[in-house]
Every structure is written in C-alpha cells, then in structure tokens.
Amino acid sequence: MLRFGAVSYLNTKPLIETLAGHLEGWGTLRLDLPSRLAGDLASGELDVALIPSVEYFRNQANYQIVSTAAIACRGPVWSVRVLSRVPMAEVKTLALDEGSRTSAAMSQVLLSEMHGIRPQLVPFPIGAEADEIEADALLMIGDRAMHPPRETYREIWDLGDRWCRWTELPFVFAMWVARRECLANPDTASRIEKVLNESRDEGVQCFETIAQREAAAQGLTNEDLHRYFAENLHFHLGTGELAGLDSFREKANAIGLIAPPKPNITENQPSSLPTQRPS
Ligand SMILES: C=C(O[C@@H]1C=C(C(=O)O)C=C[C@H]1O)C(=O)O
C-alpha cells in the first residue's frame, strides 16, 4: 500500500474530497499539519504527500512533483497572515506558525525584500494563542488564520496578496510530491498522477457541498467558505504558478533559506592554521 499524506486544513478539502475512494485497495490517506507531512515524507514514513513548496526545493534530489493539483493563490489568500504589533518595517522578532514551512520562508523573503529586515525568529506553537506570544509580529496559517484576530494589530499582511502584488506572479504554498523510489514503476507513477488530478477535478466541482458540510464547525458561513475555495485559492499548477515557484526558490535561496549554509572553513580549525592564505 502507498502511504499518502495531505494537509488537514480546509484549504485541502477540494483536493481530497474523493481521494480516499480512489485509493481504496492500494493507498492509505493521513491528514496532518504541512510541517509534519514534510518531515514524514523526508524520513520515508510517507510515500506521497502534499508538502510545503519550500520543502520540495530543500529535498529535490529525492523528490518529484506528481500532479498539477496544488494549493496556490493569485491574490489575497485569506488564510496566511502576518499580524504585526509594530510597523512592519520595525519588526525585530517574528513568531513562526509551527504548522508552516513555506509561509515561514515567504514572510522572511518579503520582509527582507520590502523592508530590508531579517527579524529574529521564535516559535508560534500550534496550541498557543497569539496573545500568549511575545514577538513584534506573528505568522499564522491555515484555519486559525481565517478568523478575525482578537487583538488589535498595527499592520496585517495577507501574504498571498503581498506576494502577488510584489512579484506579479501567483504563489504556490503546497504541491503533491512523491519520493523518487516510489515512482520506479511507470504504471504506479501514472496511476498516482491520474488519481490526484482526478480527485482535484472532482473536488473543485464540490465547493458547495464541502462548504455546507465544513463551514459551521469552523465558525464560518457557507458563503465565506465557498468564496475561499472559489476566489482565494487556486488548485492548479499552470505556467504562472511554475514561474511563481521559480521566483520563490530564487528569492528564498538568496537569503539562505534553501541550501544549508556553507560551513565557514576557518571555523573549528586548529588555531595554529593560518586564517589567511599566503598570497
Ligand atoms: C494557504 C495555505 O497554504 C498552506 C501553507 C503552507 C506553509 O506555509 O508551509 C503549507 C501548506 C498549505 O496548507 C494555508 O495554510 O492557509
């Protein structure tokens, strides 16, 4: 059996509405936070997962994108926000939602490019409330980011909106990625692709049904949730989304968020070694 993992937030419901049915007899499906899915795909506990896009960049030698189904946006996304207690240009500490990997990187890219700042990072644990966290600004993603904040903030960024206006490109938060060894058999590879694409194509026909079923439990109206699926989110990796991914990779890499930092060769060396090479 192939082990599939998908994001447990509302944003993923249209991608998985019919997936379990398609997987019957050959795959299992587990729902979890994006950061945990990334860890479990990297460790081999999952074979195929909807992982944060930045994690694909970080582990590309072992990974392959297996579907055009994705969690993306072409403007305001609603569920990914930076809430700041000070003007954004003055943020010195940023609390990162522990469920996130991509928005964690994207918020740092935007703060660096737009304001030239690299705040100190602190965790924003899943079970914590924003008002318990001491930080100038907080990154919040997923269902909990969709509710009006309890505190009054100085500035609130919708990161989808900020990215799309800054780069004039779409943004891809997560995509379906498989470990390369699971794709050795071409039949398996094409079955995975077919099932994930079909599930998305079926799911995007069901916004109404999903909204009616899920909205109340999340404290949202059916109309709001329907609008989130239909207008904020975008579920297809097209050429614009691929260009957005390239730009994100470049920008995140430029500030050291993708490649592991190169060791400083003069560090940890015997003190008798010269630190400067003879000319
Ligand atoms: C739009 C969203 O995209 C998500 C953001 C992710 C991240 O920041 O790593 C990962 C997966 C997506 O679920 C959201 O969570 O609201």
From TrEMBL:
Classification via Gene3D superfamilies: Periplasmic binding protein-like II
Region described as Disordered: 259-279
Polar residues bias: start-end ranges: 265-279
Domain of life: Bacteria
Enzyme Commission identifier(s): 4.2.1.151
Reaction(s) catalysed (UniProt annotation): chorismate = 3-[(1-carboxyvinyl)-oxy]benzoate + H2O
A Pfam cross-reference name: VitK2_biosynth
Entry's transmembrane regions: none
Protein's pathway: Quinol/quinone metabolism; menaquinone biosynthesis
InterPro entries: Menaquinone_biosynth, MqnA
Keywords: Lyase, Menaquinone biosynthesis
Functional summary from the UniProt entry: Catalyzes the dehydration of chorismate into 3-[(1-carboxyvinyl)oxy]benzoate, a step in the biosynthesis of menaquinone (MK, vitamin K2).
Family: Belongs to the MqnA/MqnD family. MqnA subfamily.
HAMAP family noted in UniProt: MqnA
PANTHER family with a match to the protein in the record: CHORISMATE DEHYDRATASE
Protein name, UniProt field: Chorismate dehydratase
Species name: Neorhodopirellula lusitana
